[in-house]
Amino acid sequence: MRTHTFIVNGERVHVKIESDVRLLWVLRDVLGINGPKYGCGINVCKACTSHINGKAFNPCSVRVGDIKGGDEITTIEGLPDTVGADLHPMQEAWLARDVAQCGYCQPGQIMAAVAKVRQAREEGHEISDADIDEIRNICRCGTYARIREAIKEGAKKM
Amino acid sequence: MEHRGSSEEPGSDNAPQDPGRNVGRRRFLGYLVAAPTLAVAAQLGESATTPRAANAVIPSPPEQQEIYDLNDLLTLAAKPTSNLIAVVINSDGTASFDMPRAESGQGITTMAAMLIAEELDLPLDKINVTLADARPELLFNQFTGASNTTIAMYEPIRTAAAIARERLLGAAAVRFGVTVDRLTVRAGVVYAPDGRATGYGELAVRAASQRTREVDVTLKDASEFSVIGTPRNRIDALDAVTGRKTFAMDRAVPDALPTMICRPPTIKGTPRAVANADDVRQMPGVTHVVQIATGIAVRAKTFGQCIDAVNALDVTWNPGTVDTESDDTVLAKLREAETDFSPLHTGEVVEGDFVFHFRNNAALEPNTAVADVRPDRAEIWAPLQAPILCKEQVAEQLGLPLDAVTVHVEQAGGAFGRRMFNDVVLEATEASRKMGRPVKLMWHRTDECRQGRTHPMCTSRIRASFSGNNVLTFEQLHTSVATDYTQGFGEIISAKVGTVPSMGMANEEGYAKPVFNATVNVPYHFGNVSHSLDEIYTYDTFPTGSVRNLVNPDVRTAQELIVDRLAARMGKDPYEFRREFIDDDRLRAVLDTVAKEGDWGREMAPKTAQAITVHKEYKGATACLVEIDCRDETVNREIRGAVTGPRVTRVVMAVDAGLAINPRGLEAQMQGGIMDGIAQALTSSLHLRDGVLLEGSWDDYFYTRHWNAPFETRVIVMPPTTGEPGGAGELGVPSAMAAVACAYARATGTVPTTFPINHDTLSFTPKPTVPPLPPSPTNGLQFAY
Predict the structure, then answer these.
(1) Nearest CA to B461 among B357, B339, B566?
(2) Are B200 and B166 in contact (CB under 8 A)?
(3) Which of B302, B445, B673 sits opposite A29 (nearest CB)?
(4) ipTM surpassing 0.95, yes or no?
(5) Which of B148, B344, B399, B475 is the most buried (most CB within 10 A)?
C-alpha cells in the first residue's frame, strides 16, 4: 500500500491505498466524490465519465497507481471551475432543455459531451449527429433526444 | 384576487363566499392538523371515471379494461384506508410535502410541487418535495406502479394546498383587520388593500390549528390554472447536472462500508459451502465474509475490493430453479400450454404468431440498499416502489416489531418495475445482522443481468377474420411465463376483486389474469373481440416482474402487426384503416395528429418505411409514427462492440393524457417510452441457456444507445381533453414498440415473428459465470478522448 497523489477538481489529494484499486472507487468510496456513478465497472456504460487532463475517460477502468502526480482529474463537481463560472455552458444547456430524468447517467453524459465537442473542434469541425452517435454513455431513461439537442446548444456557448 | 370558499377562523368567519365562483363546484374534504405550524392533510384516493361509450362500425362490447382499468382498482383500493398526505407551511415561507411515492426519474416530485404551487400561489422553487419513509398506516397507498401516482395524487395534493392557502389568507385577514375578499396573493405574499404585505412564512404559525378537524374547500377551476398545464423543468434538475443529486449509493451512513455478493452460477441457485472464507478475509480492504441466503456477502473498504474478493471466493453451490431450462425448452413449454382459437372465425382469416423473449428492467443504478441492523432496531435506505411491504419483510426477517424498523425511500436511478422487489434490502439486512456492522450493499451490473428480474418470455397469437369492409373477429391468445405480482399488485388486486389467495398462491388466477384483463384492450371495432392469458410455471420459478409496463408492449405489438396485415388484405392504407375502425375519439385525434405532423404517406426510399400505431391505457391515448431505415449500409454499419442494425430515424408521437400537468415532463416520459420501444422491438433481450442468462452487462444487453436513437424525436402533447390527468410512465412504450415493429415489417417486406428481431443471432461471447463478476479493466486511459 502506498500513498498516491494527484489533483482532483483543482485540489491535490493524497490517498493511501493499494495501487490496483480502480480510480472510481478511490473517488467515491475514499474521497466521497459521488458525481461519477457506477453502472457496470467494465467501461461500457460510461456513467463514471470524468476528465483526465481535459480528456474524457472512465475511472472504473484505470488503476489509481497509473495516475501520475501531475495528472488533473475533473469530475462533474469540478467542471464549472474549468470555465470559471457557476455552471459550465453544457450544464446550462442541460438545464435549458430539462434533459435529466432520474439523473443517474447525466454527470457522465455531460462530461462526455464536453469532451466530444472539444474533440470535434480539434478535428476541425463542429459537433454533428455522427459525432454524437459515437458517444457510448447509456441513458436508461431514454433522454437521448434531449441530450442530442442539448449538446448542439451547449457547444455553441463553449 | 379570487377567493375560494373558506371554512372557518381565523378571519374567515366573516369572509363572504364568492357565489359566482362556487356555484356547482365540487367541494373537497381535507384536515387541518394540530401542529405548531400550518399543516393541512387530505385523503389519498379519488373517484373512478365513467366508462366510455362505444360507437361506429361493428361495435365491440366494452372490454373489462374500458370499464374498470387497473388504475381504478388502485385508486379505489385507496378508499377504505383513507389515509392522509400533508402539506406543511414553514416559517421561512416555503411549503413542504413528504410524498409517499418513489421518484425514479418519472417526474412525480415536480408534478407534486406544481400542484402545490398552483393551489397555494407559491413559486415552484419554494416548495420542497421529499420522499416519505415507509408508512404502514397507508396500507396500499405507498405503492408506486402502474403509472398511477399522478392519477391518485391530483386531487388530494391540491386539496391540502388549497386549504392551506385559505388558512393563510384567514390569518392575514385577522392581522390586517380586513376581510379575506379584500386580500390579494402573489407568489406567497399576501397584500392588504393599503399595500401592507406579509409572507406565508410570517403567517404559518398564526394559521396553525390547535386541533385536528375536517374542513372543505373548492379547488381552482381549470380556467384559472397558471401552473398546471404549463411546461416546467424538473425541480431536481440542477442537482442532477451538478452531480449533487443523492442516490442510495451516495448516502453517507457512518461505517456502512461497501458490500457485494458472490452469486451462484445459475438462476436462483443457493450457496452450499465456502472453502476459502478465511483467505478472502485477508485480502486488501476486506472486513467481513459471511454466507447469506442468496450467496456470500463480502464487506470491504471499497466496492473495487469487494469485486476482487467476490471473484476470489471458492464456493460450492446448490442448483437453481431452472438449471435445465433454455430459450427453446421454455418456448416448448409455452407451446404446450397454448390453447386453441375459438371456432368463431369465418370469412377470410388473418393470423399471426409472435414470440417475445426475456428482457431486463436494467435500471442504470443497480440495486442498492444501506442497512444498519442493531439488536433492537434496523434502519434502511433504498429506492423502493413498495416500501411498506419492505418494512414488513425486514421486521419479519429480523423478528423485530414493525415500529423498530425505519425504511427511508431514496431517489431511484431508474426503476421500471425493478424497485417493487425488495430482495436487495433483505440481503443487506441479513448481511448487516450477521456482520454486526452497517452495510452499503450494491448489486454488480452482472448480478442485475443474471440474477435480476425479467419481463417474462411469452407468445402472443392472434386470429382475425374479415368480410368485405368489416372485421368480424379478433382473438388474441397470450401465453406467458408466470409474472410475479406478489410484491405489490397482488395484494391490491385481490383485495378489490374479493378473491384473496395468499401471497404467491394462485398467482395466475388471483393476480395475473385480473391484471391482464384490467390492462389489455383492442382499441378497434373489430366485431367479436376477445383475449386471454395462460401462464406456465409458478410465480417464483423465474424471477419475473413488469418492465416499464406489464403485458401491453408485447400484446399491442402483436395486435398492431395484425392490424397492418388486415389493412393490407382489405386493400386499405394503414392509417385510413385505423382511422375507420378506431373505437375512441381521443385515439382518433392523436392518430390524425401524428399522421399530419409526421407527414404520413410521404415517399420513402426502398428499404425504409413509415408505420403508424395507437395505444390507450392509464386514462390516456397515444399515437406513434415511426420511420425506419433498413438499408444494408445502415443495418451493417460498424460501431466497436455495438449492435447497430436497423435504425429508427424519426419518430412523431402524440399523447393525450387527459390533462398534462407538466407537458415537459410528459414529453420526457414519451421520449423514454420511444427509446424503450426501439430497444424491445430491435435489440434488447436476455438469452437463457441451461439456467443461465447469458447477458452480463451493457455491452451485451443492448438497450438503445446514442447510435440507435432517432435523429428526430418529436412529441406532441395534446390540449386537455378529459380535464383529469392520466398516467404517463409506461404509456409511451406500447405504441412505440408496435410502430417500430410495423415499420420494420413494411420496410423489409417480412413480418417479424420473434422479438427483439435480433434475438436469434447471439452477437457476443458470454462472460463466464465462475468467477461471477467480470474484472474491471485497467486500460481505461487508452480510450480517453
Answers:
(1) B339
(2) no
(3) B302
(4) yes
(5) B148
Mean pLDDT by 10 residues, chain B (785 residues): 38 40 73 88 56 40 52 48 79 95 95 98 97 81 83 92 97 97 97 97 94 91 97 98 98 97 98 98 98 98 98 98 98 98 94 98 97 98 93 94 96 94 96 98 98 97 97 98 77 44 61 87 97 93 91 98 98 98 97 98 98 96 98 94 94 98 98 98 98 97 97 97 93 98 98 97 95 98 97
Domain residue extents for chain A: 2-74, 80-157
* Homologous superfamily of A80-157: [2Fe-2S]-binding domain (1.10.150.120)
SS3 content of chain A, % helix, strand, coil (to 5): 40, 15, 45
pLDDT tops 70 at residue A152: yes
What pLDDT was estimated at residue B52?
30
Q: Which residue of A has its CA nearest to B710?
A: A145
How large is the angle between the packed helices A89-96 and A106-122, nearest 10 degrees?
A: 120
- What are the backbone dihedrals phi and psi of residue A77, each rounded to the nearest 5 degrees, phi first? -65, -30
pLDDT score of B539: 87
Beta bridge partners of B439: B257, B371
Candidates B437, B481, B498, B222; CA nearest to B327 is B481
Q: Do domains A2-74 and A80-157 have the same CATH topology?
A: no
Which residue carries 419518430 as its cell?
B651
CATH class belonging to A2-74? alpha beta
Q: Return d(Cα B416, Cα B425) in angstroms, integer.
A: 18
Question: In this predicted structure, what is the pLDDT of residue B640?
Answer: 86
The beta strand positions in A45-146, using DSSP E, are: 50-52, 55-57, 72-74
Quick: pLDDT tens for A55-94.
999 999 999 999 999 999 999 999 999 999 999 999 999 9
- The answer to whether B610 contacts chain A (CB < 8 Å) is no
The C-alpha cell of B452 is what? 435480476
Q: What share of chain B is helix, strand, coil (3-state, %, to 5)?
A: 35, 25, 45
- CB contacts of B247 in chain A (<8 Å) are 37, 104
Instruction: Report how far residue B429's alpha carbon sits from residue B293's, in angstroms, rounded to the nearest whole number.
Output: 11
Handedness of CA B102, B104, B109, B112 (dihedral sign): negative
Grid cell in block for residue A38 = 457506477
Give DSSP secondary structure letters for B542-570: S-B--SSSSSHHHHHHHHHHHHHHHHHHT
Res B510: pLDDT: 76
Cis peptide bond upstream of B756, omega within 30: yes
Q: Which of B250, B284, B303 sits opposite A18 (nearest CB)?
A: B284
Contact A30 B305 (CB under 8 A): no
CB-CB neighbors (< 8 A) of A87 in chain B:
241-242
Distance CA A50, CA A24 (A): 10
Residue B43, pLDDT score: 83
